Amino acid sequence: KNEVEQSPQNLTAQEGEFITINCSYSVGISALHWLQQHPGGGIVSLFMLSSGKKKHGRLIATINIQEKHSSLHITASHPRDSAVYICAVVSGAQKLVFGQGTRLTINP
Amino acid sequence: GAGVSQSPRYKVAKRGQDVALRCDPISGHVSLFWYQQALGQGPEFLTYFQNEAQLDKSGLPSDRFFAERPEGSVSTLKIQRTQQEDSAVYLCASSRQADYGYTFGSGTRLTVV
């Protein structure tokens, strides 16, 4: 079993829909990252969380440390949001342990 | 520079050839990481430097993989006698210090033919 599990693996939605991507982890962590990766592109860091909730524009990230669970929400989704979203946790000596990613496609 | 720079962006190597991948982190970033991302998978940890010291190399898949950061800034990941299973995107990330965010490079896509 992977230490970081994401769901769903693939998600297709219509423009304007509210999107939720989930991440569960099984190890102790000092922080959790949500990352965005476009096809052929590098990785962009969206959020780093150690507790509570963060909001940036149409993106919201929450974390529940007790339940070892985090969610990434996108409000009013747009085709340009189409990308792979990756959850990664900082466990041990700083190194990131990644989930397998969620491929999001937003259709116009 | 403003971001983490990796070169080359793309590399095609013949099986058995040696390759060297470069990462130029953000100036002043103490921590530097290398990750390997196979097609359709999440990145996996290879190795980690704090300044010039390689503190963790537990993710290097074989002794054909070698990484260095001799002056605590630019890092090079070298793969000797490349094999087809080495084909992947190699990502570099740097961080100012522990518990700070990471900045990723655009990666080097290595294809071994």
Task: Give the helix/strand layout.
The complex is a heterodimer of chains A (108) and B (113).
Chain A (H helix, E strand, L loop, with lengths): L3 E4 L2 E5 L4 E7 L5 E7 L5 E7 L2 E5 L2 E6 L4 E6 L8 E8 L5 E3 L3 E6 L1
Parallel strand pairs in A: 2-11
Antiparallel strand pairs in A: 1-3, 3-8, 4-5, 4-9, 6-7, 7-8, 9-10, 9-11
Chain B lengths: L4 E3 L2 E4 L5 E6 L6 E7 L6 E7 L2 E4 L8 E4 L6 E5 L8 E8 L6 E3 L3 E5 L1
Parallel strand pairs in B: 2-11
Antiparallel strand pairs in B: 1-3, 3-8, 4-5, 4-9, 5-6, 7-8, 9-10, 9-11
Task: Provide a descriptive summary of the structure in words.
The complex is a heterodimer of chains A (108) and B (113). The mean pLDDT of chain A is 92. Chain A starts with a strand and ends with a strand. Chain A is built from no helices and eleven strands. In chain A, 0% of the residues lie in helices and 59% in strands. In chain A, strands 2, 4, 5, 9, 10 and 11 form a six-stranded mixed β-sheet that branches. Chain A has a five-stranded antiparallel β-sheet with strand order 1-3-8-7-6, with no helix packed on it. In chain A, strand 6 (52-56) and strand 7 (59-64) form a beta hairpin. With 113 residues, chain B is mainly β. In chain B, strand 7 (65-68) and strand 8 form a beta hairpin. Chain B is globular and about 35 Å long. The model of chain B has no long low-confidence stretch (mean pLDDT 92). At the A-B interface, strand 4, strand 5, strand 9 and strand 10 of A face strand 4, strand 5, strand 9 and strand 10 of B.
